[in-house]
Protein: ABC-2 type transport system ATP-binding protein
Organism: Nitrospirillum amazonense
Amino acid sequence: MSPAPPAAALEVSGLSHSFGARQALRDVGFRIAPGDFTALLGLNGAGKTTLFALVTRLYHSRQGRVTVFGHDIRRQPSAALAAMGVVFQQSTLDLDLTVRQNLAYHASLHGIAGSRARTRIEEELERVGLADRRDARVRQLSGGQRRRVELARALVHDPALLLLDEPTVGLDIESRRFLIEHVRHLCRQRGLAVLWATHLIDEADDTAKVIVLHQGQVLDQGPVPEVNVRAGVTTLRATFDTLTGQRQEGGGR
Ligand SMILES: Nc1ncnc2c1ncn2[C@@H]1O[C@H](COP(=O)(O)OP(=O)(O)OP(=O)(O)O)[C@@H](O)[C@H]1O
């Protein structure tokens, strides 16, 4: 008999959410395995941020289920939240605190203090190339550096699942490339599971998995080559356009 499959890093099933009469998510389901890099692709208003709010327990889901490494977000929120790191679309750094203070505050919320906190903070700042800016106030950093601080902060408690909502918005090409390559590297090296929400289709290459979310519904999901075959086209952009009924206008997205 083969052993039971390991728990998914993130499993979402039957998830729906409405704001009054507006249905933002409809019966959304997917599974992310440890080590997977999964791009959640959707245009503005697709429901990406709403999905993040439900998975991170900012909103309560009335319909559906979310589990993180087998922990139900409703029944075992502490265990589920301890296993995830999040980079929200809007920065939540305190601009008047130093880089290190921002990370230390986050570490203490996760019960990490003293020398353990100092070590973890130093390790993560080293990893994103910002150890020499540890005592700078966040206000003094560029947009790209702030994003890197947010990434380091999200990983300081060593989660095995990382969620990022439109992490490259507003960044220049170099900062964007750094962020994508760094996160992809963490998937390969640490087995980190990643859900990367974006409207930029080129942020998912052929080795990624994708979830195409449109008007609150998952239109298709899986490894990029497989969703392309199902859509009957050869590129992810063409797949996205075919599924969502968008006209191809080149560039832009
Ligand atoms: N607080 C809210 N009250 C009412 N409607 C909302 C609220 N938040 C989101 N919506 C609506 O829910 C739908 C999904 O929005 P959501 O922000 O989740 O999409 P998104 O894919 O994250 O888009 P964007 O990339 O623009 O942030 C949209 O129709 C939006 O107008």
About this structure: Residues 19, 22, 24, 42, 44-50, 166, 199 surround adenosine-5'-triphosphate (CB under 6 Å). Helices lie at 48-55, 77-82, 99-109, 114-127, 143-155, 173-190, 224-231, 236-244.
